[in-house]
Design goal:
By secondary structure, the protein is an alpha/beta fold. Helices cover 39% and strands 21% of the residues. The strands form three sheets. The protein has a five-stranded parallel β-sheet with strand order 2-1-3-4-5, with helices on both faces. The chain has a four-stranded antiparallel β-sheet with strand order 6-7-8-9, covered by helices on one side. A three-stranded antiparallel β-sheet has the order 10-12-11. The longest helix is centred in the middle third of the chain and has 15 residues. Bound molecules: calcium ion.
Length: 224
């Protein structure tokens, strides 16, 4: 497994490389946004750890351009704890997860493993509900014949709901299953994801398949 770390603080980058190598990962470093973007799009990585405050291009721009290039590689963004940067914004640019600095290395490794596990679904996991289809292996999604671009985590949330189509799923069930055991952030992040999914799988198609069941959770409607 190869990980790209884009981080301009040399001591942090060096510590990440040492720690991740000790966990058995191959690690490449980039110390600015331009190099990070180039390496992310030209290289073959299983995961990218991306700082936000970077010389040249910031982490938001790098993440957005990685996604614009059509890459689904899981991106874990490192956010500053001073509140200057909005975690929802990190996710809006296409990051799959975020971690506030300073972070525990144990938590970082758990998040990395969770992201890598999600990327490694089993064959035969293709799902369809109405004319909505996903192929988690190939990280692809379609409404009818129209391809829809989803991040790894959006795909995971949608896949979880598609397996339970027609039933109400609670926020905590989604958190437990998609964010795994180490989620420590705001559960309202689920609302952010539902908004993003609606804008992608419903809005452009004039459908309303994600229903909010007030006080309970969400339901993916079987009939559109
Ligand atoms: Ca930085």
């Amino acid at each position: 497994m190869r990980i790209l770390v884009v981080e301009d603080e040399r001591t942090v980058a060096a510590a990440l490389r040492r720690g991740l190598q000790a966990e058995g990962f191959e690690v490449d470093l980039a110390d600015n946004g331009d190099d990070g973007l180039w390496m992310a799009t030209e290289g073959s990585y299983d995961l990218i750890i991306l700082d936000i405050m970077l010389p040249k291009r910031n982490g938001y721009q790098v993440c957005r351009e990685i996604r614009d290039s059509g890459s689904w590689v899981p991106v874990l963004m490192l956010t500053a704890k001073d509140g200057e940067y909005d975690e929802a914004e990190a996710l809006d640019t296409g990051a799959d997860d975020y971690l506030s600095k300073p972070f525990s290395f144990v938590v970082l490794v758990a998040r990395i493993n969770a992201l890598l596990r999600r990327g490694g679904s089993q064959p035969g996991d293709g799902l369809s509900v109405g004319d909505l289809r996903i192929d988690p292996i190939g990280h692809r999604c379609w409404r009818g014949e129209e391809p829809i671009s989803l991040t790894a985590r959006e795909m995971a949330v949608l896949g979880f709901m598609m397996r339970r189509a027609g039933s109400v799923v609670s926020k905590s069930a989604i958190l437990d299953n998609v964010w795994t055991y180490d989620f420590s952030g705001d559960p309202n992040i689920i609302e952010v994801y539902m908004g993003r999914l609606r804008r992608k799988i419903d809005g452009p198609f004039g459908t309303r398949t994600i229903t909010t069941v007030r006080g309970v959770g969400y339901r993916l409607e079987v009939e559109t």
